[in-house]
Structures are given as structure tokens and as C-alpha cells.
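Shipment paperwork, digital attachment
Item: protein structure file
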Amino acid sequence: MVQGRLREKLTGKRFFLVLDDVWNRKQKEWKDLQTPLNDGASGSKIVVTTRDKKVASIVGSNKIHSLELLQDDHCWRLFTKHAFQDDSHQPNPDFKEIGVKIVKKCKGLPLALTTIGSLLHQKSSISEWEGILKSEIWEFSEEDISIVPALALSYHHLPSHLKRCFAYCALFPKDYRFHKEGLIQLWMAENFLQCHQQSRSPEEVGEQYFNDLLSRSFFQQSSNIKGTPFVMHDLLNDLAKYVCGDICFRLEDDQVTNIPKTTRHFSVASNHVKCFDGFRTLYNAERLRTFMPSSEEMSFHNYNWWHCMMSTDELFSKFKFLRVLSLSGYSNLTEALDSVGNLKYLHSLDLSNTDIKKLPESTCSLYNLQILKLNGCRHLKELPSNLHKLTDLHRLELINTGVRKVPAHLGKLKYLQVLMSSFNVGKSREFSIQQLGELNLHGSLSIRQLQNVENPSDALAVDLKNKTHLVEVELEWDSDRNPDDSTKERDEIVIENLQPSKHLEKLRMRNYGGTQFPSWLSDNSSCNVVSLTLDNCQSCQRLPPLGLLPFLKELSIGGLDGIVSINDDFFGSSSSSFTSLESLKFFDMKEWEEWECKGVTGAFPRLQRLSILHCPKLKGLPPLGLLPFLKELSIGGLDGIVSINADFFGSSSSSFASLEILEFSRMKEWEEWECKGVTGAFPRLQRLSIKDCPKLKGHLPEQLCHLNDLKISGCEQLVPSALSAPDIHELVGGSLLSAFLQVAFEKLASLQVRGFFRGRKLDEKLLNNLEIKLNSIQALADDAELKQFRDPLVRNWLLKVKDAVFDAEDILDEIQHEISKCQVEVEAEAESQTCTCNVPNFFKSSPASSFNREIKSRIEQVLENLENLARQSGYLGLKNASGVGSGFGGAVSQQSQSTSLLVESVIYGRDDDKEMIVNWLTSDIDNCSELSILSIVGMGGLGKTKLAQHVFNDPRIENKFDIKAWVCVSDEFDVFNVTRTILVEVTKSTDDSRNREMVQERLRLKLTGKRFFLVLDDVWNRNQEKWKDLLTPLNDGAPGSKIVVTTRDKKVASIVGSNKIHSLELLQDDHCWRLFAKHAFQDDSHQPNPDFKEIGAKIVEKCKGLPLALTTIGSLLHQKSSISEWEGILRSEIWEFSEEDSSIVPALALSYHHLPSHLKRCFAYFALFPKDYRFHKEGLIQLWMAENFLQCHQQSRSPEEVGEQYFNDLLSRSFFQQSSNIKGTPFVMHDLLNDLAKYVCGDICFRLEDDQVTNIPKTTRHFSVASNYVKCFDGFRTLYNAERLRTFMSSSEEMSFHYYNRWQCKMSTDELFSKFKFLRVLSLSGYSNLTEAPDSVGNLKYLHSLDLSNTDIEKLPESTCSLYNLLILKLNGCKHLKELPSNLHKLTNLHSLELINTGVRKVPAHLGKLKYLQVSMSPFKVGKSREFSIQQLGELNLHGSLSIQNLQNVENPSDALAVDLKNKTHLVEVELRWDFFWNPDDSTKERDEIVIENLQPSKHLEKLTMRHYGGKQFPRWLFNNSLLNVVSLTLENCQSCQRLPPLGLLPFLKELSIEGLDGIVSINADFFGSSSCSFTSLESLKFFDMEEWEEWEYKGVTGAFPRLQRLYIEDCPKLKGHLPEQLCHLNDLKISGCEQLVPSALSAPDIHKLYLRDCGKLQIDHGFTLKELTITGHTVEAALLEQIGRNYSCSNNNIPMHSCYDFLLRLEISSGCDSLMTIQLDIFPMLRRLDIRKCPNLQRISQGQAHNHLQCLRIVECPQLESLPEGMHVLLPSLNYLYIGDCPKVQMFPEGGVPSNLKRMGLYGSSKLISLKSALGGNHSLESLEIGKVDLESLLDEGVLPHSLVTLWIRECGDLKRLDYKGLCHLSSLETLILYDCPRLECLPEEGLPKSISTLHIDNCPLLQQRCREPEGEDWPKIAHIEHVYCK
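Attachment content:
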């Protein structure tokens, strides 16, 4: 990403770059560095400096310039500059003569000349110069010691006291940045400072030492900016280490084992060594004097946490000679032990940035202590009382601590300097302000709670005026107060007495209550002030003449409600004022109306930044365009501004000449921006932001030549058209953080929240300050979001910011909850008193209540946290966008659950790949005995899954395999789960087994002998043993079985033993363009604008042939309509992201980057969902709503509507897609996009997918548990740290009410509700041990969504009704829940109540009054009493589907009218049901007719079902056009109705089912409604059980049923005549029980399924399309087969066996084929199922050749059948099911027995049991065996049944008396034994049953049941171990 930005900046530019001090010898790294540099314009040049000629060669230098030593004349000039401080001065000849010789010895080395010159400048005599000339140090060998002699000589000639100070720097790492004060303090603590003169303090001596070393060039300042740290050249650092390395040791490597015994001074580089073993490392250094950490910089603000394995007690005990001890940033220090008092030599103790809570009294025995640092110890509340005994203490630092009280007598310490950032004045004398008077305060000081100063003379005692070392002062009163006149006067005296010193540079006054500012602000007393803040001084009515402060650079004025006008007095001078001011801010000035500047000239000559915010009455702006150097202007919350016109510009020809950033925000009344007549304005404007200005109309200024960043939001009437901005890069919407902030801003702006503060007399300034702080953070958000991808420190900062923002939102939510609670209480009270008050004062409360104090305290804490984070932004290099969108926000793993379904019919660029794989699958080359495996290998997003889907659905492989299965494996490779999933796919039924061996055996049995094709999608597993385990049951498949594996990992392809590895390549250019164009232009054949095409081609090139990237970026660009937007995306630096570092595909990151901030938040929420997750739109939108992600600015749009828009926006941008093209199917997300969601939001979203996870991060706000993986988790252990959790939900593989997994948690719900009080979303759906919701649910006062679906709760507690913020309540599937709490109507914010499949019959009163509430409930059972009346439904806003049952209980039809179904437009599915046994008389029939008329549904209805209706005629609304949108209609058992409505006129009707209408005799043209066009959309038509129906009259009707695919007519015995003839799309026809119907001459070219039972003959064309045929009943013409094969009709009843029916896959023949004697299987070569029943003359089934496809053979009631096919064990290799029932002549199986792959077999109705032993032979696959109706007393001889048997069913064996144990004991796989209707069966075997049995059914076996009764039955001990025993 950085490289991309650099390349973008350099492209086409001619640049000159210097790379100084290069050491790298790695050529590859150098080439990587050059990559972005190569795009510079020709002539670009780089200069490299290096000490290494090899480096010069490696960098590819065109020219190597070896820098020679300086020539003599230059050497002399440089030397004299430092030695004589003047290079032009002519020195004394004697000095010059010696100097020349010294210069010669420096050998032309500049650093040596500089240092030695600086040394000689200190020498004033000839002899001293001669001594240096003659020094033997010049003879040092650099080769031996790597020390430059001249530097060594400079060191040698340092005074000894400076040598020691310099050498001490050996402790600091190279490039260490240090501050002067900190280094001097260390010198002082080490006793390096010689204070011979008592008049000079050690600090003054230290400063002299420091300046001496600085003047000698031993170190230098890192920049020329005041206050920046100092650095030392690395050669000088080497020198320090050389001269002092024996006693100074710095630890920079975790691997160091120990340090020398001579070591006296030790430092640990905490930025490199996070944890070191103290004893192991420091074992020998017992006489250590110094122990301290060092990070990259010596700074209080910049530190690294570090850890030591040695305890502090051990440290204090072992190293008793310590002088300097620093444990700053020591992460596990919470207590300083008494043993610290053992360090009697200690001079400096630094415990800053630790979690200590107190200092032990033993600290006061450290009598040599000079320096004590406790900065950042926030938990430290007090200091030891005897601290004054430390008489040598020079410095006490207490910045950002919790200390409020200064120990007595501390001021008596004459040397002591105190630094404390804040002091809170208390009400008692103990915390009096007077304490400060005796202290020698330095640095900055904030004095707070000044209202507690009761005696103004106390303030005078502070003596601020003489505290000359204080450079920064803040004076603050409490914001939560309302001073009267006397306290205002006292405040004025107090502030006068707190006059600071004239040396003050920075002053802040907050919440001052006086009416006038102090006099010292108006005279020259504060002439040196550089920064001034006046905040919330509400009573002041006039500003001082601040324009006269000569050095004032920053001025901030806010909350001065007494200021109405700012006039000339403010400026102080009409001609020259604010001469140095650079930044000016006005904010929250509620009463300010006028800014009068007329007559003032020359003001603000240097002003660069101006901000005017929240000044609602300000009516006009001065001519700001005339400010010559103004760069940033922010205007917001000025409700008095209606128009901004030419006066704003100040000049019509040239205004805002320097302005770069302009922001307008929250200008509610602003309507017009008049720019006509103004030219040349904004010539340098780069960023423009206009937010939340809803009334602003018109256009933007047109000529903004340098604008590159435009941000517009919440300006519905603004038309940003015709904008000329050639440099615009991004037109985007904001960062993810901005989305979080937006929620907070909306809540801060809430009138209710503001009213709450006023009503409770809380200081509204707290809200304003919070908004300001959040705005300042938002200004950094965009830059931080972009930098997080490459800088982990920025990513960590973002995490902390989000945490603070969440804290702020929590507070505002708590206020909102309090408001809702008060409203409900007041309304309840008003109702009870019948009060008529219009405006209840529900804010009224005691100002000093605990709730108020808590809110105030928490806001202050958040403000402090935000302040700290804002300060840190500088260290991170974050750029402040001044509130204007900086262009980094965006108008823009978890793996989606792949299935075999095709989502898109076209796959681009993969035709050759598909052809190759299909050929491999269909060829017999690899059909060896071993399993064949092909692996498709490629990176994520390459289209592996889509390719496999197209192969899987290719018709060419349809008949090549017996079994096809698709399994998505994903990265959680659990052999058991994968095996079970394969088994489920193979059997198409669920399997709940928990035993891996059992599941594998079942799968093996299913696949044995079968040729299967299996796709294993997205395999990650590299464990070969796991793969072998998975293959075990697969290896028994038939030869030719094949597996296709898709994976990203070539190693995986090798491990799985692939016969062929197909590496999927990137798409070629032409295919890339087609795929891109399809999404970017929504038409892959369209020829786009040439300019778009040119840019698009370049973007396509950047996608590097990756289909997912092309799809996503194409969808993004479809939203962009201008060339500049396309160019901005082309130039984006995100293209340069390193995928190796972040695992994020740049194109996807770019698409995310360009999402609007509100969509970023919705997308990032997907980090919660587990892999393979399928979600439904409605459920996801509800979650977004509950999380407050939906911005409903327009009250006309509901949150649900906004959510649908968001969802569709993300869908259109390809961030997810529907899992198939079938309506209603769930949606999925690609795994790379889920990885991206997890990357951007993984810090706050955590999904638990592993039982082994011990705990989750403290920052986690959203938590989900994957219930399909984690069946039980330890709640407290896992969630220990995440106390501020907002989301707790279970998630299975799909977000669905019908699809869920049961799971458990070791934490009780009561604990859950008590611990996580900040929850917004709580889902316990499927929680198996939840039977009761405890009252503590009422503690969850922030809760927005509660889902208790699919649990066993029986009631909801009344405390649920106190969840005033609840939006969503889901109780689906709670079948034991009978009623709801009576006060549910108090949940005034409730939007959705779901009651599907519950036991609830009664709706609580007043629920319909909730204006937002949508209710989903089905069914509703009408009761006989008024309590359960249908009227309850009338007041509800019902959604989704509704079944109203027991309508016979509606006694008064007007009750039905009250339901008002006609206006329930959100009901899309309705069932109207009377009782099945309803037998109405005439009067009740009439009532039913009125009831159903009154239940007319809405015209939006899509599905209607009417059951057991008793009226004689259907309702009128079925005859007119009221239900135009109905798609599905069912009329069932409406027995009295005599005429059908004209249903053919329903234009969208797809499914029509008519059943049990006994009153219908004829269906005629009325049914069609039109003679020329009817049932235009109908696909399925079914008639059932129409006993009186005789005629279907359709003559004269043409064009009916043009799309009909399914036609079923069943049990209509009187129906005569024919079917409609032209049914071109019919593929499924079923005629049953219609003996008089003659379905002849049917033209159905697409017919696939035909079922005929008891009907006349059928003549059908195009019979070769038939796949399934069922013939049953005595009137069926068996010659149909002949007719189908040869297309003619025959009347005999025999199957013609001389045709080939290779099109049939399934054939069933039952009854009516009396002449059928033989069935030849050879004429049905593709048949898979053959079912023959009741063919009385069938004698044999013959077969001459192998039949590879027949899987099921069922023969029942064929009494003449004598034998089964000969050689069936060989000729039927695929047979897996065989059933022979009531075929008494079948006594033996053919020789060879049954096929070896047979899985299920049934033998029923043989008087003698067929010889099973010979039948089963070598079969080891049989899983299920049913034996019934045999005449034997004993069954199952030894060795008859195979070991593989899982289920054994013995039924209706009347003579059976006993079971033989020997026939059962070997069945180790047997799980289920069923014994049914064996009345003489006496007992179980004495030895019992096989131990493997887990289920035993005993039914209708009275003797055995008596013996198996629990617990007294004689056989009970034999079966007590069985898990499931059923005795009936």
C-alpha cells in the first residue's frame, strides 16, 4: 500500500532522492525498494551514502563516487569554524601552527575535525593545544578497535565529570531519542553532578554539563523545533560503549543468557525484549547500580509494556546496591512491596505507567532518594504520610495519577520540585487548595473543582503569581452547578487571586461562574500566553481585548452563553490585532447572534485555521474570504444561517486564496449557497465536505480545479452536478469508525438526551465536549483506517478508539433507557389518575442522585480517554482532516457454504478446464481398482468452486455414476464430521450418530460396489493420517469411482494422493474483460464509452486475472458514473497492499474501502458468522437494526426499509450472493470477503468455533458461538474479560428458524444476564437447558433483540416488560410457552414479535397500540370464549404467514371483520381453517359464508389456503380481482361449495390444489374465466378426492395452461372424458382412481414422470422422454409400454418384451397385468428401480447380461413367481435393496446368492424361511434385514447373519417362541432390534442380546413384554444397558 502511494506520487515526476547511511547487502530487498521508484519521469536521480563499496555495487549504481578525505584547505576551514567559532578569523600564528598539525592528524575526516575543533575551543593556552597534538591516542589503530582516534581524543580531553556523563550513554540503544531533563535526572541520581557551589542546584549543574557536551558535538537536537528530543551519532555511541562497556550493559536480545559480573548499569530495550528471565540474565550482577527499561524514546507518553519473570520482591532483595531503579511500563506490577525499603542507596525510583495502588511506608526510609516518578499510575490514590522525611528529594512527578491529597510538610523539602498535572480541590480542609501554596510546582497544572474554594484567600495562598516554573495552567470549576449571585462574586475574587505568573504560556479556564473575566486578562500580565481556552464561562457577558496578546497563537472560545455580540472590544485595536494568531475556534455559543468586525482592519493576519460550531443564533458570517492565509475552515450547527452569499467571500474576484479544507455540517436551515458573480474563489481548495444540510438546494461552486476529495451526505436536495474538479480522486463516504461515531452523534443530538440533562440539572457542556472530542477523533479516522493495513500501532490505536466510542454510546444508551423508563412510569401514573397533563416532567429528579453522579463521572472518564488517544495520534503520524472526509472512507475466513447448485449459468474462461475434468471423469483410463482423485488447485477467488459446480452439473456425467455427492469441507477438517456429511449426502437423510467407527462403517456399506463421484470442496487439511482415515470407507467403492478436490494448497493436493493435479490459472485478458464488463456495465456485450473502457482495462490488469476481484471491483465501478471516480479507483494506493502481510486481496480491500461508512459497518458485522454460514435477508436486517446500524434520517422510511436498501446495496456490490437462483434460498459470502470482514472488525467481533478456546479479548463487543461446532462451552471461562459485550448469539450453519442446533453452556442464564449488562443482542436459540427465563433478564436494560426460539421455556417473566429499548423479541418454536407477560405493551420501541409455532393463544392487551410493532404468529387458534377471540388479531400489524384455525368458534361474524385482514398488507401467506370434523347446518353454513367474506385478505397476498370451509359458495373476493398477486392457492375439503371461482384469471398463480370438494359436479369454462388465455402462469395443478366430479368441460377454451408442468388427478371416480390435449411443458402426470377417465391423445413432449392407477387407456406422443413409469390398477392398459416404445395403442394386458426401453429409469407395475408371465430385465438397460406388485401370473424375471444400474428390486404378491434372476450376484452388481413379499413359491435364492453390495433386504410371507445362509453367502454389506410371517418356532441359526447388520426386524411370526443367541451374538454392528407381533415369543436368549444394541422395540409380543417390564421383569437385566427401550 505504501509503495502504491509512493508510486502514485512519483509517476511522471522527476525526483531527486537521497538515501543516507545505507548498510543493506541484500539485493532482493533493494529491488523491492526500487519498484515504486522506477515509475518516476526520466531524469530522476538517487544519491546513496554508504560506508560499504559492496553496497554501492548491489544498489546498481550508474556511478560510484568514492568520497575522499577533505583536502587540507577545507579541513582547516571546518576545523577553525569549531575551534575558533569563526572560519574567517585569522588566529594567533602559534595556535595556527599547532592547529595545522592537529588537522593533519585528523586525516581529512569531518566528524573528527568537528569534534576535535569543539574540544580545542575549550582550550585557551598553547600548552594545552600542544598536549593534544602530542597525545598518544593519535596512534590508535582503527582496524583493531573501530574507534576514530579523533573522537577518542575528544573524549580523552573531556573533563572527568563529562566523561562519566558521556559514557553513561552506553546504556542507550543506537538512535535513542532522549530529553534533556530526563538525562540530567539520571546523572543526578548516579551522583555524576558536582555541586561545589551551594548556590547552584544539581539541575543547574546538570544543564551546564549537558550544554557542554552539546557544544562539543557529542550529541545534537533531532530537529530545530523547540522541545524535540536529542540524539547521538552511532560512532559516538560506539565510543561510549567502548569506554564503558565493561560496566554498562544493554539487553537487546531475548536470547542473552547472562551478563558480566562487572556490570554496574543495566538497561533492557523494552521495544525489543518484551519478557526476560531476570535471575537467569542478571545472575552474576549482584552489585548492580542501575536497572531500567528503555524504549525508542525517553518519554512519559511513549513507553512499551514489558514483563520480567523475576518478582519485584526478588529484585529488591537481590540488588541492594541500586541507585537507579526504573520499572516504568512493567506490566505485572500492581503493588510495591515493603522490601523496596531495603534499597538504601536508591537515588531514583520510577514506577510510572504501572498499576500500583499505593506506595508502602517503607518508601519513606529511602533517605538518599532524590527522584520519585509515579506518572500514569491511575490507581494510585494517596502517598505515604511520611514522605516529607525524604529530605534529599529533588523531584516528585505525579502526572495523570489518582492522588488528591499532598502529604503534610512536603513543602518543607527545600530542594523539591513537584510536577502534578491535576489537583482536585476538596470541600474539607484536608483537600484544600492551600496545599499547593507550599509546593515548588513545575510544568503544567490543572486545578479542578474550584467551586469548593469557600474562602477566596485560600486561592491567594496558592501564590500562582510567583510560581514561575509553571508554563501551563488550567482553572476549572465543576460543570454541574448553577451559581447564584453570591457564588458568582466569590468566583470572581477567587480567579483574581489565582493570577498566574507572567511566564505562563498556556491558559485554560473552564466552567467559571463569574460575570466578568479577571482584570489580569485585560492588562499586560499575560503577555507571554501562546494558547488560551475559555470554555463554558456562561455568565460572562463580554470578552477581554484578547487581540492585544502579542504572542497568542491558539484561541478557543466555547459555551459562553452570556455573549450575544462580539465587537471591536474583542480586538482591542482597530488596526492591528491578533497579530500572531494561527488557530481560532468558537463552539457552543448558544446566545451569540452577531460578530461585528466593521471598522477593524489588519486583524488575523496569520490565521490559518478557523472553526465555528454549534452557534445556533449566529445570523451572519464576516467576509472570511479576505483572510489571506486561512487554510482550514469548519462551519457547523449554525441554525440561524439561511443563506451564504457574496458577503461571505468578501471579494468577487479573489477570495479564500489559501483555503485547502472547507467543511459545512449540521446546518439545518441553510438553503442557499449563492456563488454567482464570484470568480477566482477557492483556487487551492482540496477537500470539501457538506454533511447533514437537508434544506440546501442548488449546485456546488463549479470551478474547483484542485479539489481531490469531496464528501456529501445528508443533503437530499443538493445536486453536485456540473462540478469541474479534474483532480478529484475519491468521492467517498467515510471510515468504519465514522459509522460508529455517527451513532454517537445522533444520540448526542437527541432532543430527549439534551432535555434529560437540562431536567436533571446536569451540565450540558459534558455532551458538547464529548461531541467535540468525537469530532476531533473522526477527523483522524479516515487516515487511520487506511494506515491500519500496514501499521499495527495504528490498528491498535483504532481498537482503543472504538472501545472509547462504545463506552460513550453505552452511557448515552443508559440515558435513553432512563428516559424510556420514566416515560412509561409517568404514563402509567397518568392512566391511574386519569391525568390530562400534556407534558409530564419525566426528567424531574434530584440533581445529586447517584445516577446523575455516575453519568457525569463516566462521561468525564470517556473524555479523558479520548483526550489521551487524540494526543497519541501525533506519535502515529495520523493526519487531521479537520472534520472533512479525507478520501479514505468509501462509497464501497469465513467461507461461504458451497453447494452443488449453479448460481450462474455462465463461467468465463474455464471452458478448457471444464472439458478436461469432464473427460477425466467420463473416461475409463483411470478406472483401476484404486480410487482416482483429481485436485483443482488455485488461490482464493480463482473460481475453483464455481468450476467444480459446473462439472458436477454437466449432463454428460449424469449416467456415469451411481452416486454423486458434494461436500464443503472447509478449514475445520474433522474426519468424523466430514465422513458424516458425506454419508448424509449419499443417503439424502440426516444422521445423528456420535460414533466415528459406526459412521465410517455405514458409509463404507453404502459405497461398496457403487461407482461414485464425490466433490470435496475447499480442503485445507495437511495431516496425511486424517486424510487416510477419511479415505478408509471410500476405498470400497466400485472401480471408476472418482473424487474431485478443490484446494488452495498444492501440498494438500499431494497429500490426498491425487492422480492428477490441475492448477487453475488466472483468467486470460479477454475473459477478464468479459467478466469485469458483465458487472461494471451490467451487460457483457455492451460497448462502453471509450474513456471508461481505457480506464477499465487498466483496472482489469490490476486484478491480475482473479475472478472474485474482477466481480467485486466491477460491481463497485457500476456505482461510479464519472471518469474522475474511475480514475480515483485506478490510482488508489490500496492496489499496493501486500497480500503476504495481510492476506487481503487488494481489489477486495479497495471495494470495501469505497463502501459508505454505514455499509462498512454492516459488512464488517459478518466477522461474527462462522464458516459455511447461510443467512436470510430478513434475519440479517433485524440484527443490523438491533445493533443500531440503520440510519433512518427520513421518518417516512422504517428501519426495515432502510435495512433492505443496505442489504441490496451490498448485494449489488457482490459482497455476498444468493446460494442458488431459487427464490427464498439463503445468501452466502465468499471466504475471502469474510476474511476481510474479520480483518477490519476482528478486534471487536469474536466467533467461538472451538471448545478449547480459554478466553476472548477484553475488547470484544460482539460474540457468537458456532453451535454446530461447540456443543457446550464454559461461559465464564471463555467470556471472563468481555464484560462490555454487546452481542451474544448462537449461530448454526444457517440463520433459520427451521434449522438449528441444540447447544449447552455451563454458565446459567441468571449469571449471563447479571454479568453482561450491556448486551444489545442476545440469542439463546436452541439452548437446550433453558426451561425458564429468570427475572434477571430485566437487568439487560440496553437490550434491543432477544431471541429465545427453540427452547423449552414455559413463560416469560414480567421483568421482560422493563426492557424499554427492546426492538425484537423472537419466541419461535417455544411450544411450551402458553402466554405472554400482560405488560408487554410497555415495550414502546418493540418492532418485531415472532410467535411462530408456539403455544400462545392469547395476545396481551394493548399490544396493538405499539405503533412500530410487526407480529409474526402462526397458527392462531380461535377459542370459544371472548378471551381467545379472533378479534385479538385486529389490532396487530401482522407480517409473514398466518394460519387462523378453529374458525367454527367465530360466533359473531363481525368479529372476523374486526381482524381487518384486508389492510394487513404485510401478510403474504394466509390459511383459513375450520375444524376437520365440522359438520355445519344451514344456519352455520350461512355464518361461515359471512365469516369468510369478512376475512378478505389484502391484495398483496401470495399464498392462500382454505380448509374445511362449510359455506355453499366461495367468497366474492375470489371471483373479482382482489387477489391478483396470489401465487399458490389450496382449496381443501370445502364440501358444500358447488361452483369454482374463475381462477384462470389469476395472472401470477403457479400452484393450484383442489381437494375434497364434494359439491362440485362439473368444471366448465367459468373455471377458466377466459376462452382464449387462462392460467397463464400455472405450473402445478392438482385435483384430489373429488367424489362427485363428473365432467371437465374445456371445449372452446384455447391457450389454457401454457406453462403447466405437473398435473395430478386422484380419486375422482366419476370423472369421465379426456384430458386437455396440448400440454407442451407437462413433465409430471399422475392419474389415480379415475376409472372412467380416458386420458388419450395427450401431447406432452417433455413428459418425464407418468403414474397411472385405475384409469382408462392413454395415448401419448414422445414417450421416449419418459424416465419414471408407474402402472397400477385393473383398468390400466399394459400395452401402454408398447405404445410408448412404438407410438401405437394396443388393448392386450401383456408387457411387450420385444422393444428396448432404454429411456426408463423407474418402473412400477401393480395389479392389472394378469397376462404378465415374464419380465426381461435386458430390455430396461437404464432401469434403477423395479417394483412389481400383484401380478398373479408372473413366473420369472429373466436376465441375460449384466445390469449395472438396477438398485432396487421389489416383488410383492406374485404367487406364481418361482425364482429370482439366475446369477443375480454377478449380473446385478448395483442392487442395494431387495424385497420379496408374499411370493410363497420362492423357496431358494439362485446359486451364488444375493449381490455382495446388497444393503437392505426383506423377506415376508414364506411359510418356510428361505435359506438365508446360502442367500447371503459372502455378503458383508447387508445393514438391514426384515423377516416376517414365517412358520418357525426358532429363528437365526449360528452364522447365518452377516457381521455388518445394523438393523434387524422380525415381525408377524405367530409360531416363533425363542431367539437363538448363537445366531445373534456375533453381530457386533447391530444397533436396532425390532420384534413385532410375535404373540408366542416367550423370552430373550439366556445370554442376553449383543452389547452393540442401542435401540430395542418390542410391540404386540405380550409374553415377552411381561418379562421385559422395568424393573421387575425377569428379562429386564438382559436389556437394562440398552439406551432406548420401547415396550408397547
